[in-house]
Amino acid sequence: MDFRRSFSFCLIFFNVLVISCSSHNSKYGELVWNDEFDYVGLPDENKWNYDTIGNSYGWGNNELQCYTIARKKNAWVDGQHLQLTAIKESWDSFGYTSARLTTKGKGDWKYGRIEVRAKVPGGRGIWPAIWMLPTDWEYGRWPESGEIDIMEHVGYEPDSIYTTVHTKAFNHTLGTQVGKATYVPDCETEFHLYAIEWDADKIDFFIDEEKVFTFRNSGIGPDEWPFDKRFHLLLNVAVGGNWGGLHGVDDAIFPAKMMVDFVRVYQ
Predict the structure, then answer these.
(1) Burial class (CB in 10 A: 0-12, 13-18, 19+), 227
(2) Which of these, 126, 108, 78, 85, lies nearest to 243 by C-alpha position?
(3) Which residues carry out catalysis?
(4) Which residues pair with 98 in a beta bridge?
């Protein structure tokens, strides 16, 4: 494993939106969608949806949380950051609550640069993620239409960030998923910039502008490369589950909060 560190270069000055240039020379220069979280209240309903449809079956991963809708204890913007908070509490027969936001129907893209600056929660049993799913599922159900994991973190590995793709040919149910674990020892205490640059030939994954992984289009077809369709963004904090809960859940970690500084999409 290649362990490396770097720093983010994006800032917001005063109360006016200023998007600064980073050291990474991206071919994607047009900002087409963003949320700077410079307001107070629930997440902007023109940009975000609440996803709760998988609560009843643990989202296929035996997750323990109940995702809620428009509940400020779980999803709130404080004027600077989006706060997604997992809480130990009883709710609709679940033992935990949390939030899962999506841009589906409000932000759907084919190719571009997607970047999210965030600080992840830690502790055994927590599982935050920044990721993408297909909007139209044109190649079939998961994993046939693909999944792009821009950032995943499991609390029992406090110094690691995972970047992964899933397709029909490459996915964790077969043990063939492809991705990279990157050493980021302060991911739970500091903000980092997580990004992808995606085109017809490849998806490059970045942490703080350093490329950490590339998934290339083999040209074989959608079993290996279903990434020629529209995708949307998801932000969530899961509790437990087949991966996040592999070593159990430490209830002393709650409330557990993912802080998001901004989300920006360039094409």
Answers:
(1) buried
(2) 126
(3) 147, 152
(4) 67
- Per DSSP bridges, beta strands 94-98 and 65-67 are parallel
Write the CATH number of the domain with boundaries 31-266. Answer: 2.60.120.200
Closest residue by Cα to residue 239 from 61, 76, 4, 57 = 61
CA–CA gap between residue 149 and residue 233 (Å, rounded): 10
Domain ranges of the chain: 31-266
**From CA 59, how far away is CA 174, in angstroms rounded?**
18
- Count of beta carbons in the 10 Å neighbourhood of residue 220: 9
CA angle 122, 41, 236 (to 5 degrees): 35
Summarised one tens digit per residue, pLDDT across range 173-225 is 999 999 999 999 999 999 999 999 999 999 999 999 999 999 999 999 999 99
In single-letter form, the type of residue at position 84 comes to L
Between CA 128 and CA 216 the distance in angstroms is 26
Amino acid at 36: E
Whole-model pTM: value is 0.91
Backbone angles phi, psi at 60, to 5 degrees: 75, 0
